[in-house]
Design brief:
It is built from 19 helices and 9 strands. The strands form 2 sheets. Strands 2-3-4-1-5-6-7 form a 7-stranded mixed beta sheet, sandwiched between helices. The chain is globular, with a radius of gyration of 23 Å. About 9% of the residues have low confidence. It binds guanosine-5'-triphosphate and magnesium ion. The site of magnesium ion has 5 residues, from helix 1.
């Protein structure tokens, strides 16, 4: 990559979606501190954030100062606050700015499509952080119901992204993970509890990754500080994905992407060769790509559809009868698997997932879900062979390396477990992730001793 002056920097807008008290503000402050920490570790390559505007800098310092003085987390956010950061890198060749990004710290209740400011943020966004309370997900059986409203927003965006073929990433950030038992079991519990939602994201081919954020406050010589791990990797991933294109092309926001998509479709309709008899019917819809219409298309996901009006049992029998006629219908298989998982019927979900994996061998997410179901059923060998398959496709897949290592360790094959953990550490793209793998490896290997 060429050195860039400040004015050349691509600027990305990151949306955040999360309810009151989930940990959005703490995440922002924690990620800043976490990356700052990796910089001071004197490694050959480190990343850090720099606040670009004085107001944002003041606001961030006020939060960190409050924590240092009181030893308490900051108070709830009262109004939307803007932050402009640059992501900077240090390497042997020197320091450089990689990109800039805008972050809106939003009060929980403003994360709502009816809020005009939030609508603008959604449409101007390039990617999104979705905040999920990891502690509550494991310990509160009602949490998923409470989270459903926020998740519908995610699905609305993800469905539009799919429909219009846009490139838009979702970082799923599990907050407050330091309150969970350390070790892989909590992580697996999070994944298990989230499976119904992941299935829905997979069904629209959403691009997403999971991140486990732990930001406790620790005392340090009469003052207090955030000891953050795991969260900053979410920012690094989203920005890395956005920054991939070289030379830097202008990345589309959700709004410009949708507009481009509808106007291209309109162009196609207008083309003299187009012989679609319905073109006059659709044209006005296609060219009405104003903000209002786009917001309406987001809002339509909140209206109950015919499908939502059906009970899960009715939906299941509907998809079963489709499959009786057309056993390989992938949409029916995906929807049926999701419903079985949501209805806590893993035995029925398993054969459906096996068919999905056969048909979609490239979808790692489905393979992970299947492997997890095998593990839950104590079918460890089958689970391991799924991880082997994933590793044959992607030999650096950290999640598969770690999960296989845990299984090998359970079988007493400690040497292979160690080798797999070592490889996972080696390929971890950030210090935070490496530390996380290390922590898992230590707890698993010690547990085995
Ligand atoms: N132990 C622990 N607690 C956390 C963490 N993140 C957030 N919390 C707790 O969650 C509370 C809310 O965090 P905030 O970051 O203020 O939540 P928010 O999403 O910004 O909430 P609003 O601004 O009210 O919408 C904090 O006061 C902490 O008690 C974490 O990583 N670890
Ligand atoms: Mg806040």
């Amino acid at each position: 990559m060429n050195g860039l002056s400040q004015t050349d920097l691509p600027v990305f807008n990151l949306l955040s979606i999360g309810q009151r008290g989930v940990g959005k503000t703490v995440f922002l402050a924690g990620s800043y501190v976490e990356l700052q920490g990796s910089r001071s570790k004197n490694s050959d390559r480190s990343l850090w954030l720099e606040c670009q505007d004085s107001q944002g800098k003041e606001n961030l310092e006020a939060v960190l100062d409050y924590i240092a003085r009181t030893g308490e987390y900051p108070p709830p956010t009262m109004k939307i606050t803007d932050f402009n950061f640059s992501l900077n890198a240090h390497s042997r060749q020197g320091d450089k700015k990689l990109c800039a990004f805008r972050w809106w710290d939003v009060p929980g209740e403003s994360c709502n499509f009816r809020d005009p400011d939030f609508q603008k943020m959604v449409l101007n966004s390039h990617s999104c952080c979705v905040f999920i309370n990891g502690y509550a997900l494991v310990n509160n059986p009602e949490y998923l119901d409470k989270f459903e409203g926020a998740f519908k927003q995610v699905m609305a965006i993800a469905s539009l992204v799919k429909e219009h073929g846009l490139d838009y990433g979702f970082a799923l950030i599990f907050t407050q993970c330091d309150l969970l038992e350390p070790g892989p079991v909590s992580q697996l519990q999070i994944e298990e509890n989230l499976q119904p939602l992941l299935g829905r994201l997979d069904a629209v081919n959403a691009k997403y990754q999971r991140f486990y954020s732990a930001i406790p406050i620790t005392a340090h010589q009469q003052t207090f500080q955030l000891s953050a791990t795991g969260g900053a990797a979410a920012l690094v991933w989203l920005l890395g994905e956005l920054n991939k294109t070289e030379p830097f092309q202008e990345r589309r926001t959700l709004e410009s992407g949708l507009k481009q998509s509808v106007s291209t479709a309109a162009e196609r309709q207008r083309a003299p060769t187009a012989v679609n008899p319905n073109r006059h019917r659709y044209l006005p819809i296609l060219i009405a790509s104003s903000l209002g219409v786009l917001v309406m298309s987001l809002a339509q996901f909140f209206l109950p559809s015919a499908e939502q009006a059906q009970t899960p049992t009715e939906q299941i029998s509907q998809y079963e009868s489709i499959l009786a006629r057309d056993p390989n219908n992938i949409d029916a298989l995906v929807n049926l698997a999701k419903l079985y998982i949501e209805q806590q019927q893993p035995d029925k979900a398993m054969p459906v997932l096996e068919k999905i994996v056969q048909q979609r061998p490239d979808s790692l997410e489905w393979q992970f879900i299947l492997a997890q179901l095998y593990e839950n059923k104590e079918e460890k060998q089958k689970a391991e062979s799924v991880y082997d398959r994933i590793l044959a496709q992607q030999d650096n897949n950290i999640e598969a390396l770690v999960k296989k290592a845990v299984l090998r360790n359970e079988q007493g094959d400690i040497q292979t477990a160690k080798t797999l953990f070592a490889k996972a550490e080696k390929v971890a793209p950030t210090d935070a992730l490496r530390d996380r793998v290390k922590a898992i490896s230590q707890s698993v290997l010690q547990g085995g001793n």
